[in-house]
Amino acid sequence: MTKLILSTGNIVSGGPSIIRKPGANRSNFEFTNSLRSSFQAAQQDYAVVEPALGGDALANGNGNGNGLHAAFAEDSRRAPVSLWTAQENDVLFVPRIDWSAAGLQEEPARYEITAKLFFLPTAPISNRVRYSTEALDLVLKELDVPGVDLLIVSFPGMSFDGDCEWEADKLNATQGSDEEEAATWLAIEELHRQGLAKRIGIAEFGSEKLARFLKMVQIPPSVDQINIKNCCNVPPPLVKLAKEQNIELLVHSDCTDILSRGTLRDLLGPRPQGAGVLGDPETGAGGLQGDLTPQWVVKYTAVVRDRGVIENKGYFASADLAEL
Amino acid sequence: MGLLAQGTALDWPDAKKQAHLVRAWGIKQLLEIWNKAKVKERDAMLWGDEVEYLVVTYSKDDPKVLLSLRQADILAALADDKSLSAKGGCVPELQGDPASRTNEPLPVFHPEFGRFMLEATPGKPWGIEFKELLGVEPNMKLRRCIAKDHMLPNEHPITLTTFPRIGSPGVFTDPYYPVSGSKLRSQFVPDEIANPHIRFPTLAANIRSRRERKVQVNVPVFKDENTPWPWKDPTVNYDLHQWPEDDDVRTGGAAPDNFIHMDAMAFGMGSCCLQITFQAKNIIEGRQMYDQLSPLGPILLALTAATPIYKGFLADTDVRWNQISKAVDDRTAEEMGEKPLRNDRWRIPKSRYASNSTYISTDPRLRPEYLDPNLVIDEDIKQQLLDGGMDDRLATHFAHLFIRDPIVIFNEDLQELDLNKTDHFENIQSTNWQHMRFKPPPADNSIGWRVEFRPMEIQITDFENAAFAVFMVLITRVILSFDLSFYIPIAKVDENMETAHRRDAVLERKFHFRKNVFPVRPPRGNSGTSTPNSISRPPTPPRGPVEDEFRPMSVNEIINGTAYALGPDVEVDHEDDFPGLIPLVESYLDSVNVDVVTRCELATYLDLIRKRASGELWTAAKWIRHFVANHPAYARDSVVSEEITKDLVGAVVAIGEKEQKGEGFRGLDKQAAPDLGKLLGGFRGTSRCC
């Protein structure tokens, strides 16, 4: 089993992938676009000028060099996968990460750092404890900080949908799995206890679901992040409950199903549309072969507190490759 | 407007003799503060807004609406009322958490040039916490309410940019004064129209004296069905023989056909603006903000257009800017290029009130081609600044500002140079009224480097004023976060500024705007071991012709993005797909933690701006034009009579009263303020929800 760690790097100064699609009030557009840009940028940066170097590169192909040569010839301006990715033990970093560039410009206390962890429906629930640690570790390493100010977890199968937020609240009450969410929360509470996350929160909990959740957990969430459309009508029961429990209601525009198998295959699949990390399952040509399963996605932002400037924002995602 | 110095103001011939000294001392003071403050770091984002009001007398039963000249009394009443306690229902409608604002310092009121004007600022600067942004609108309402409370019952603070009939024949001030005083020598307005503090009449008189004639503020008249053509301003008096300047209209060509003719500083400096000042974290960020906000100036001017009437006539332009520019234009005939240079040092293409002439950032994206190759600078002053250690670009900026003479000089200030002050520097700096101002810290270095955004027109309601103020704050955060570049050649910004004056420019005109505002991604550096041996691309991509970097765009496209402006069915080339300022702001807001209530309020502000840009809602200028056009007393001859003016001001007063009471604007449509829905849409209706 190989694990893939996908990363976007800092996307705030990375160009148009931060732009929201007109009309879309919720999407994974930013995430997928910035991953795509990240792959392309790495392919360009690690491309070698001398075609002869390509041979050397292939020699370090980490055992998955099958077909790389063809991909390389197809677009000589792009680096072969082995050059712009990095294999460390059983982890393949896509693209490779230059940790020497990690960190923020000023000391950590000057930032408000938020991480949002998306658990995905494709991944086993039993692994969520491990996922939380893995994801947060990467964020802390990337920003070179001892902890985050706010860690929000997003569970699969939850939404805040409907023409009117009242409806959304009703529908929400029936979604997800209270037991599984509460069980996962234990791991998040632990991160809080260890001082790795000053505040912890959840996403997309309506009033009923939130009320049930509060009864099941030791440390109540400080934040409930919800997706609201244009109207300012947050369901009053949710407003009331949040106020009573001192839970801050924050806005987001992410979709919960942020990385599906299909999207992941498209991103990593054969060129020219994909990054060429995965081979063509039909012909067996080019890149890795196997069944790819998204595990989690984490989004992080570092905002300079008293200036409101976003200095760093990016994503990591993890996927398991069951090799055939 | 800062504290008013006391002393003996020099008349022009004497002031002129001291101009060189003031400049020399001003540069020394600038170098002093620059040396002290150039290393300032990590200042917080603080910002402030300035709202200016006209004070009018209006009551339903009085057929006349007049400018009240009681500024001094009103300011005295405000100053005497130590607590400024909010009396008579002056409690602003609070948004968010009321407890958070109970200890807020009270607003501050300032005099302005016009004796019929007031300026009000918040009691302390705003921060960037998003909840704080929601405090702006209640605070603006509080300011207006406190101002009203210290006026007579028939006096009202209103936020029209100009009084429609200032300078019209007959009575337009309370109390009345005859025209043609010694300071302004205007045939339309009395000297008493200006703040009587010695600074203001001296400013006006010395500008007139320096240019050796009165200022000429000519605005093209709007040609309606029954407007005689060619149109000769019927209010110009050709038989006045009080002052030598009275010849201007007879022999000087001061009043050309088809133009509304005005002849005094009060016609320009009597306009109300909405100005926003931002504190930068350091000088580098300040210079970046100065440059990046500069190309936005004309766009926001067009979007806030509110000035379609002058001196009782409909104008063919929509904004105040050029009128102020002409009203304080102190250039001599030689400097303007009308006579060969003999006594003056150079020809100067722009008034001291004009759009920016320099970019000052250290950003490598600032290409030399963007700058004005013919920029006039004082080479000696630039050399002094360079010798003092300042870099070329910033030295050039100040050496450009310092081509101007100081206009008002107090004899008492010329005894000795005090490097613990910045008065001489400020004398030149603050009479360079460009559309951006780059402000060094004060002499005690107690606050940071600041940038003032000056082009916006004041809006009729506090809701709109808050919306534009907050929008600009968010835009600065977007620029800094996403490292955006709006650079186009300075000359194109000038052109845009002219374009912004055209009638309904917001919908009918296009503006030069940069196509790709995003930074070029830096290639991975050579710091780590994992970096490639060689990189296939040069570190900076080759740059094409500057002309390829921008194209004409509508305000709608600039504000809302190409996709929104053209609709979903139009395919756009990737290169021509401009994201839009509002989508950029939304992307920013998506990336920071904002609570639902705050986000909704911010969304309301963005909606107003979106709709103004798309034409779904009207600018104040358009609304006023419609008001006049549909008034039963309007004869389609471009004349805005006293009766129409009274009803227009009455509508504005009624809108203000509704807003103060928090009653929403609904209902006014049918009575006092027809078509108000076209101006304000459903915003701030009876319920707080959008």
Automatic annotation (TrEMBL), chain A:
PANTHER family (UniProt xref): GLUTAMATE CYSTEINE LIGASE REGULATORY SUBUNIT, GLUTAMATE--CYSTEINE LIGASE REGULATORY SUBUNIT
Pathway where it operates: Sulfur metabolism; glutathione biosynthesis; glutathione from L-cysteine and L-glutamate: step 1/2
Domain NADP-dependent oxidoreductase residue range list: 113-253
Organism: Podospora didyma
Presence of the UniProt keyword Oxidoreductase in the record: yes
GO annotation, biological process: glutathione biosynthetic process
The keyword Oxidoreductase appears for this protein: yes
One GO location term (cellular component): glutamate-cysteine ligase complex
Family: Belongs to the aldo/keto reductase family. Glutamate--cysteine ligase light chain subfamily.
Subunit structure: Heterodimer of a catalytic heavy chain and a regulatory light chain.
GO molecular function: enzyme regulator activity; glutamate-cysteine ligase catalytic subunit binding; oxidoreductase activity
Keywords per UniProt: Glutathione biosynthesis, Oxidoreductase
Protein name listed in UniProt: GCS light chain
Automatic annotation (TrEMBL), chain B:
Signal sequence range: none
Enzyme superclass (EC): ligase
Keyword terms: ATP-binding, Glutathione biosynthesis, Ligase, Nucleotide-binding
Pfam families: GCS
Tree of life domain: Eukaryota
EC numbers for this chain: 6.3.2.2
Cellular component GO terms held in the UniProt record: glutamate-cysteine ligase complex
Record region (Disordered): 518-549
Gene Ontology MF: a single term: ATP binding
Pathway(s) it belongs to: Sulfur metabolism; glutathione biosynthesis; glutathione from L-cysteine and L-glutamate: step 1/2
Polar residues bias spans: 526-537
Gene Ontology biological process terms, A to Z: glutathione biosynthetic process
Reactions catalysed: L-cysteine + L-glutamate + ATP = gamma-L-glutamyl-L-cysteine + ADP + phosphate + H(+)
Family statement: Belongs to the glutamate--cysteine ligase type 3 family.
Name this polypeptide is given: Glutamate--cysteine ligase
Species annotation: Podospora didyma
